[in-house]
Write a structure and sequence with these properties.
mainly alpha
Length: 416
């Protein structure tokens, strides 16, 4: 969570620029200084990530997650297309934008408490990398924590740059994935159609009916054969999102919504309108002669740009809704989900891998898109109740607490 914008956040005391460095040793941010708006947006993004991981990630093998089965029912087709227009790619993009926001907040907070902020943030990302590798190899090949940590470490030296430079680099990196695929055409799927069909059959048999050890061995080979390649190809996109998230935070738009209200209205209208229109156009049968094939590099760049506009439109709309008292009262119920996004993301993997894989209930490919969507809504609601109940007694989610403790090198206070 497939994040994942998982970084802790808190209110900043200034609106931009490089943070001042004091003499105190960096220390954790007080729990009461979290930014509720960011938690709410992260909670909304978590829903989208959960739904797409559920209908595409856990139910079918990794390399065929976007394929709509030929025997899908009319209802499944409608659900799949609706999710494709409304959530696919947008939720994960919003999640990764928030991860960039979280990196910037953590760095500013740590810098305000003394020297060593860069090293502390690097250690935080290394800890996340360890979590990600364990998640990737032992639980699910759809992990994003590993690539988030690696991409975060790569953009870390750029965190002090001015917003304009961060934005320019973010735009430049939008073409990174297309460039890699142009130079290395077999980077994503390094096998022929026949080899792909054999792999698909083997994956169904192993994930759907194999023991945990058999799944573990098959997943390790799958990771080596193409999952790592896919993550590498996707890293420029993640880096672009992180830099854009940093830019958004540094401009102060999240902290001063009233000042940027008009810009946010336009961002919501243009971003959601353009993104939804483009997404609908892509699924229409008449578009086949108009859209280049999957190797069309220019189309990849356009697709990436529109996807970011769509995600930013969602974020802008949520910031505006959070200024309305009635809407805010409802949306704040999602804040615990966002505050415990790391725990909720990993909990989803544990639950759904057990549900769909052979060493659990073996429901792989046996649940349609519509059924999976209902299951996702129910599970998200349960997570929302559980997160709220947990945070009434504890400061952090279990995995957030472990990540925080390992970052600072000592056990953090858990109970409120």
């Amino acid at each position: 969570m497939p994040n994942v914008a998982l970084s802790k956040s808190g209110n900043a005391s200034h609106s931009g620029g490089a943070p001042s460095v004091g003499e105190a040793k960096p220390a954790p941010v007080a729990a009461g200084s979290r930014i509720e708006d960011i938690d709410v947006i992260r909670g909304v993004a978590l829903f989208g990530v959960l739904m797409m991981n559920l209908v595409e990630g856990f139910r079918i093998p990794f390399s065929f997650r976007h394929v709509l089965p030929t025997d899908a029912s009319p209802l499944d087709r409608v659900v799949r297309h609706v999710l494709g227009v409304v959530l696919a790619g947008k939720a994960m993009t919003l999640f990764s934008l928030l991860f960039g926001v979280g990196l910037c907040i953590f760095f500013e907070r740590a810098s305000a408490r003394g020297p060593g902020a860069m090293a502390l943030l690097a250690r935080r990302l290394v800890v996340l990398l360890a979590f990600g590798l364990a998640h990737l190899f032992f639980l699910w090949h759809g992990d994003v924590l590993t690539s988030y940590a690696a991409s975060g470490l790569l953009v870390l030296p750029l965190i002090r740059l001015r917003p304009a430079i961060l934005f320019a680099l973010a735009v430049a990196l939008l073409g990174g994935r297309a460039f890699i695929v142009w130079v290395w055409p077999n980077a994503v799927l390094p096998f022929s159609a026949d080899e792909g069909a054999r792999h698909y059959a083997d994956a169904l048999a192993t994930y759907g009916g194999g023991s945990y050890f058999e799944v573990l061995v098959f997943r390790a080979k799958e990771i080596w054969d193409f999952v790592l390649r896919f993550s590498f190809v996707h890293m420029p996109t993640e880096m672009s999102n992180f830099l854009l998230g940093m830019c958004i935070w540094r401009t102060g738009v999240v902290r001063h919504v009233e000042r940027y209200r008009r810009a946010l209205v336009w961002a919501a209208l243009i971003g959601i309108g353009t993104g939804a229109g483009f997404a609908i156009f892509r699924i229409l049968p008449v578009n086949a002669p108009l859209i280049p094939n999957s190797q069309g590099q220019f189309f990849r760049v356009v697709d990436n740009a529109v996807l970011r506009m769509y995600a930013l439109g969602y974020g802008a709309l949520l910031l505006l809704l959070l200024r309305l008292p009635a809407a805010r009262a409802v949306l704040l119920r999602l804040a615990p989900l966002g505050q415990m996004a790391f725990t909720n993301y990993l909990t989803e993997t544990i639950f759904f891998s057990t549900l769909f894989y052979g060493y659990g209930f073996g429901l792989l490919t046996k649940v349609g898109f519509a059924e999976a969507s209902v299951l996702g809504v129910v599970f998200y609601a349960v997570q929302g109740v559980a997160s709220a109940m947990w945070l009434r007694r504890f400061r952090f989610g279990p995995f957030e607490w472990a990540w925080r403790s390992l970052t600072y090198g000592k056990l953090q206070p858990m109970r409120r």
